[in-house]
Amino acid sequence: EAGVTQSPTHLIKTRGQQATLRCSPISGHTSVYWYQQALGLGLQFLLWYDEGEERNRGNFPPRFSGRQFPNYSSELNVNALELEDSALYLCASRPGTGENQPQHFGDGTRLSIL
Amino acid sequence: GEDVEQSLFLSVREGDSSVINCTYTDSSSTYLYWYKQEPGAGLQLLTYIFSNMDMKQDQRLTVLLNKKDKHLSLRIADTQTGDSAIYFCAETVAYSSASKIIFGSGTRLSIRP
User: Fold this and answer.
1) N or C: which end of chain A has fewer CB within 10 A?
2) Measured in whole angstroms, how far is the alpha carbon of residue A10 from the centre of its chain?
3) Mean pLDDT across the stretch B8-21?
4) In Å, how far are A3, A68, B47, B61, B105 from B9, measured between CA atoms?
5) How far apart are CA B104 and CA A16, in angstroms?
6) A58 has pLDDT over 80
7) Quick one: residue B24, left, alpha or beta (phi over 0 = left, psi -120 to 50 = alpha)?
8) Is A41 in contact with B48 (Cβ distance < 8 A)?
9) Which of B30, B98, B105 lies closest to A42 in CB terms?
10) What residues 37-96 of chain A have any CB closer than 8 A to a CB of chain B?
């Protein structure tokens, strides 16, 4: 069974540009989560999608947005990039939202802002 | 509020046991998880414990749960250099007829010779 896949692995942008990060969940998983992990720090929750709908959003500005497609894959878009957006962006998927269902993570997209 | 707390760093000698501690806030949490993150990678699910259990053992890993104190620990026996990583504790909390998972800030485990 393929795990959670994220693309691209690395992304280099300059200030003010826009970035699109992609995530394919494990087959059969309907929930997708996005996290930001700045260097040396913990996970900051960004967005949660389930069955195509946004279920919850972390404390990030509106220039961070995303969507989930009918096949449950997801995109994270970051507009007007700033230097502090440089981080590892992790995607996780989950079979559903039941209590006994852990999240499974991809290896992340490392976004560097020059 | 929702909060999972962990100490940021732990250093142990190779061959010793490592004990990583975590406190959580939601007394109704049913599942608690431990994840491992190696450099440059995502989080890997290591183990989990159901709230009606006090202990769970899986090879070198032992998870202890104290529900009264809302304290969770992960013990790694015979710690090896390959155990160097960041370890995240996580709890499930109820959210709008579903559940969500709250992560701690992670404990960076370093192994000294």
Assistant:
1) N
2) 14
3) 96
4) 29, 36, 20, 19, 11
5) 32
6) yes
7) beta
8) no
9) B105
10) 41-43, 45, 48, 50, 55-56, 90, 92, 94
Q: Could you tell me which chain A residue has the CA closest to the CA of B41?
A: A107
Q: What is the mean pLDDT of residues A12-38?
A: 96
**Rg value, chain A, Cα:** 13
- Check if B46 contacts A (Cβ < 8 Å): no
Q: Is A4 on the interface with B (CB under 8 A)?
A: yes
Q: How far is CA B97 from CA A52, B44, B101, in A?
A: 17, 27, 14
B23-53 pLDDT tens trace: 998 877 788 999 999 988 899 999 999 988 9
Q: Do A42 and B101 touch (CB under 8 A)?
A: no
